[in-house]
Amino acid sequence: MTQSLIFAPMGVLALLTFVVLGQIPLRRFRAGAAGQIVSDDFKFGESAAVPGHVSIPNRNYMNLLELPMLFYVGSLMFFVAGKVDAVVLGVAWAYVALRVIHSAIHLTYNTVMHRLIPFAVSNLVLMAYWALFFLR
């Protein structure tokens, strides 16, 4: 199997991260223009005065820079070790799909129990991804 195929799910997750990053200034500028926030609301990070629809993209972005780092490292480990196969790719794509679903819920209607499920399952998939590397 072509080992470089592992870069596709990595690229999609990176793209998702950049898309979410783009939501941060977009929502902040819109809220500023609508008079919902002022610059001092961000003087020491996001204050409690920042509405949820404005602060959520920043929280989602931080989520995408936390545990997904283990996905990127694990993917590079599979690539370097030459262990990329159909199972590894399937697990990688499952992880990315779950993160996309989580972000989509978080950035739209944001029902906690709905977003908890793909988030929790994605973490289990990530653990399985690492176990798969060391058990093979």
Question: Which architecture name does CATH use?
Answer: Up-down Bundle
Q: What is the molecular shape? A: elongated
CATH class: Mainly Alpha
Named CATH topology: Four Helix Bundle (Hemerythrin (Met), subunit A)
State the low-pLDDT regions, or none: none
- What is the number of independent domains? 1
CATH level-4 homologous superfamily: Membrane associated eicosanoid/glutathione metabolism-like domain
Report what the structure shows.
This protein is mainly alpha-helical and 136 residues long. It has one domain (3-135): Membrane associated eicosanoid/glutathione metabolism-like domain (Four Helix Bundle (Hemerythrin (Met), subunit A)). 73% of the residues lie in helices and 0% in strands. It is built from five helices and no strands. Helix 1 runs parallel beside helix 4 (86-107). The longest helix has 27 residues, at 7-33. It is elongated, with a radius of gyration of 17 Å. It starts with 6 loop residues before the first helix and ends with a helix. The relative contact order is 0.15.
